[in-house]
Amino acid sequence: MQTNVTPDTSPDASSNGAPAQRKVLLNSDMGEGLGLHEFGNDEELMRIIDVANVACGYHAGDPDVMERTVALAAEHGVAVGAHPGLPDFVGFGRRRMVLTPAEVESIILYQTGALTAFLAKHGLALNHIKPHGALYGMLAGDEELMQAAAGTALQFGVPFFGLAGTAHESVCRAMGVDFVPELYVDLNYGPAGELLIQRRPAPTDPDAAAERVSRALAGKPVLAVDGTELDIQFQSICVHSDAPNSVAVATAVRAVLG
Fold first, then answer.
1. What DSSP designation does 249 have?
2. 3-class DSSP state for residue 162?
3. Is residue 182 over pLDDT 70?
4. Cα(6)–Cα(25) distance, integer angstroms
5. Are 7 and 182 a contacting pair, CB within 8 Å?
6. Integer Cα distance of 253 and 247 in angstroms
């Protein structure tokens, strides 16, 4: 069985125990299709990324799509995490819903459990949980909802991918859940560091994406849409698979990461 793939922050034995240069993982949201309808560039991206966040049924990703996506990840040695979303096919999980903590727990548990069956078939272990779309944003701003999500990650014994400085991080820290903060290169940030979720994916300039990563790795601020300088803590970088030129963006980011 595959073990969890997490960023490497271990000491570098070749430099007398000094901290090693951190390994930043490249992740992508995948398996976001239904039946014959595919919405991403999964095959090309699997050759570039380290980690796939696989849709598991509610905003996208039926059983056949999950099977194909997990098989593709296994073929390319890519770790797989669950990418549960809101039950909203029409809005692709990008419209907020009013949910109780118990409902959040149930929808994440249900979807993650479905994905683990396909992972077991292909000899893979669940790597992490990363919510999709509006659910991601809802959990970032609501500690009670986030406690339900973190409890599910704790149940499966996996890290949670999310935004540093939000309830994603604070609740995970309080509950003892490993937390992997993300940097986004194909979405903009608001002045408070919030992600500006788009209803429809748009192309991203690969050079601009590479520049954002280079600056962030050098400890320089990321600029919000209004010019506010943001200090984004991250250990993984997300490139969405359904953007028109996602392969070019991921390739540019990979060139920076090495």
1. H
2. strand
3. yes
4. 8
5. no
6. 10
C-alpha closest to that of 27 among 158, 138, 161 = 161
How distant, in Å, are the alpha carbons of 131, 137, 191 from that of 227? 28, 22, 8
CB count in 10 Å sphere of residue 207: 11
Query: β-strands 179-184, 236-238: how paired?
Result: parallel
Name the percent of the chain in helix, strand, coil, to the closest 5. Answer: 40, 20, 45
**Parallel, antiparallel, or unpaired for β 126-129 and 222-223?**
unpaired
Lowest mean pLDDT among 16-25, 71-80, 221-230, 248-257: 16-25
Least reliable range by pLDDT among 23-27, 38-42, 114-118, 215-219: 38-42
Read off the tokens for 40: 């991403």
| The residue to which tokens 């239904």 are assigned | 34
d(CA 20, CA 107): 38
- Which residues lie closer than 8 Å to 45 by C-beta, 6 or more apart? 28, 30, 239, 241, 246, 247, 250
CA trace torsion 105, 92, 238, 33 (10° rounding): 100
**Which one-letter amino acid corresponds to residue 82?**
A
Which residues in 130-184 belong to E strands, given as ranges? 160-162, 179-184
First to last CA, the chain: 27
Angle of CA points 219, 133, 68, to nearest 5°: 100
Q: Reduced to 3 states, what is the DSSP secondary structure of residue 80?
A: strand
Amino acid identity of residue 159, one-letter, is: P
For the beta carbon of residue 219, count every other beta carbon within 10 angstroms. 7
Among 172, 74, 190, CA closest to 127: 74
